[in-house]
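Researcher: Structure for this, please.
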Amino acid sequence: KLGLDRCGATQLRRDGQRTAGLVNDSHAHRCRGIRSSRAASRRASGSTSCRGARPRGSRRRAAEEIILGGSAGSAAEEMSYLGLDLGATNVKGALVDDEGRVLAHALEPLGDGAATLAPAAVAEVLARVAQSCVRDWAAVRAVGVGAPGAIEGDAITGCANLFRGARFPVPLAALVAARLHGKRIVLVNDADAAALAERWVGAARGFERAAVLTLGTGVGCGLFLGGDAPLRDVEAGHASVGGPDGRPCPCGARGCLEAYAAAPAIVRAYGDDSVTCRDVVARAASDDRAARAVDGAARYLAVGCLDLCRTLDVGAVVLTGGVARAGPPFLDRVRRHAREMDWTCLPGRADR
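Model: Predicted structure, C-alpha cell format:
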C-alpha cells in the first residue's frame, strides 16, 4: 500500500496478491501498509544527496556499527550515540539514545561552492555540528557519519556531488576523528543509513525485504533482501527509466531515475533556477508549468517504485528526503501514476 505518514516518509507495500497494492487508506487496522514512520524525525541521515557515479566496491555492512539520529528532543545524554549526515547542501547532526529518541540536534549549511569544498573543510563543518550536539563526550558511545558516494572502509572512493577536484579516496572518517576527541567514526553511505533508520524505527520496520528511496539532491537507495544490513552496490536511483536518449544524469549516463525525480531535476524541468523544489511543488496547484514538472517527476518515480516491487519482490518501498517531505501535493501524484501503471492481470485490483 502507498500511504503518507506524519513525517513525510511514504511506503509502498506489496499486498497478499503479490502485486503493488496502492490505496489511500488511513485505517491501520484495515491496511497494515499505512503507519507512521518516526524515522524521518529521529535520524540525522537526512538522505538528501546522491551516490552519483560509483566504482564497484564493498560498503561497510556491519549494521550494529551504524548509529543514526534526527530532530529535537531532551538534553539527557546517558548511553548516547551521535549521527552525522553529510549532504550536498547541509550537514545535520543528532544525538540519540539506544531506542532512537533524539536528545539534541543541529544543522549547518555547507554554503556556496559546497561541491568543491576540500575534504578538510567538510570535516571541519562535520566537527562543528557534532560539537553543537554534544556536551559530554564521555557519554557518547559511538559516532556514525552518513555520506554520499561510494564507501570503501573508512573512505569515500567516489562521489558526484561533493569533493569535485579532490583526489579519491577521501579518508573522511580519519579527518573527522581527528577533530572529535579521537572517537572512532563509522562511515556509511547515506542512503544505507536512511534504510537502517527506517528498518530500526520507521516505515520499513518488520519487513525482511524493503527498499528506501532517498529523494533530495540525488536519488539514493538502501535495500534489504533479508538480513540485518542493506545490500551493497544498489543503485536504483540510476536505474534507467527514461531510456538511452533520456535526460542526462550527473553520473554521466542518461535516463536515470535521478535525472527525473531528484530535487534539481524538478527545478530544471520547471525552468527557473531561482526557486526551490518545494516552491515548484507548492505552485503546481495553480501553475501549469509547475504542474507538468511535478507530474513528470511523480510519473517516473512511480515507475521506479513499481520496478522495485516487481523485480525484487520487496514488501515495502519507503520514500524519504526533501522531495518526499513536500507532502501530498507530490506524493498523491505518485500514487495516481502507480495505480494507472499497475498491472490488471491479477484478481482483486479494484480493491487496492
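Researcher: Any notable elements?
Model: Residues 2-37+204-351 form a domain with the Nucleotidyltransferase; domain 5 fold (CATH 3.30.420.40). The chain has two domains: 2-37+204-351, 42-192.
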